[in-house]
Write a structure and sequence with these properties.
Elements lengths: L8 H14 L18 E5 L20 E5 L21 E2 L1 E6 L5 E6 L2 E5 L2 E5 L5 H9 L1 E6 L5 H6 L11 H4 L4 E3 L6 E3 L4 E11 L4 E11 L12 H4 L2 E4 L4 E4 L12 H4 L3
Bound molecules: flavin mononucleotide.
The site of flavin mononucleotide (FMN) has 19 residues, from β5 and α2.
Length: about 270
């Protein structure tokens, strides 16, 4: 029966490589198993064969499906894959940047490369040609809404078309604009959490935009009974840059600034 007992998937991959060294056929990972107890050698099991593919018997009596290789693995050391110098981090946000043009027409775009850079500052990496950039340089303001699971189509759409070519893209996305009370930029009615920003500066060479956060605006529909923001009600999106997927923020798994304290007491 096929079985896999490797402690880590990437150790299993090592098993696959070794397997391919012994056979001309590519074997299905689910047909063999890797790693011995010490992690210092790799054990590859061929449950459907009496002998190892190289024809030699190996291992002790009764364990003749096993090939031991000294693969240089140290105890506890795992194989890793390098993806190179790329902008890939978890989690990346899905921000929807909203602006007004000189006529007061709202525009919105999707931005996944950005985050908080000071206590009251947000930094984003926005290409200079975007309608959004032209607008915010004129109006000196923008809002940053968190994309939500219930609006994934609209949020992706505003990342696919430009206000330069489709001036009514905001309306086509099904968004409705409400003027911010704090800055000269629109809030998006359909997105419940937004930061309202005054332009600090924009560098067209580095594409770095910095905005001063002057207010955080939250729709009451996502507040709990204590007036706190309920992440489950917001259902904010996360961008997965490895696979170009939108994920939804999941279950609570810990308490920040707190869970690590248990290790502080250890000697
Ligand atoms: C998931 C996703 C993330 C994006 N992130 C960025 C980003 O961080 N910076 C950027 O300049 N463009 C980003 N874009 C592309 C812009 O959203 C897109 O070019 C948009 O059409 C610009 O609209 P505008 O010209 O109306 O401002 C992203 C698009 C998608 C779909």
């Amino acid at each position: 029966m096929p079985f896999v007992t490797g402690r880590r998937a990437n150790i299993c991959k090592m098993g696959k490589i070794i397997c391919e060294m012994f056979t001309s056929d590519r074997l299905n990972l689910s047909n063999f198993v890797t790693v011995d107890e010490s992690c210092s050698r790799t054990a590859v099991f061929f449950p459907w064969e009496k002998r190892c593919p190289d024809g030699k018997r190996s291992g002790k009596e009764g364990r003749d499906h096993r090939v031991f290789m000294n693969n240089g693995l140290q105890k506890g050391k795992v194989m890793r894959k390098d993806f190179g110098a790329k902008p890939l981090t978890y989690p990346q946000p899905v921000f929807i940047i909203a602006t007004y043009d000189e006529e007061g027409t709202p525009d919105a775009m999707n931005a996944a490369w950005g985050g908080i850079s000071e206590m009251n500052e947000i930094s984003l990496c926005l290409s200079a040609g975007h309608k959004t950039v032209k607008n915010l340089l004129k109006r000196k303001a923008f809002t940053v809404s968190m994309a939500e699971a219930g609006k994934v189509v609209a949020c992706d759409y505003v990342g696919l078309v430009s206000g330069n070519q489709v001036p009514d893209k905001f309306a086509r996305a099904g968004f409705h604009a409400v003027k911010s009370a704090f800055v000269d930029a629109p809030l998006i009615e359909e997105l419940s959490v937004a930061v309202e920003c005054r332009l600090i500066d924009y560098n067209p060479e580095s594409c770095i935009l910095r905005g001063e956060i002057v207010n955080v605006s939250v729709d009451e529909r996502v507040l709990d009974d204590n007036g706190k923001v309920d992440a489950a009600k917001v259902a904010p999106l996360v961008f997965d840059p490895f696979n170009n997927d939108y994920l939804v923020v999941g279950a609570k798994v810990g308490k920040a600034f707190s869970d690590g304290k248990q290790l502080k007491t250890q000697k």
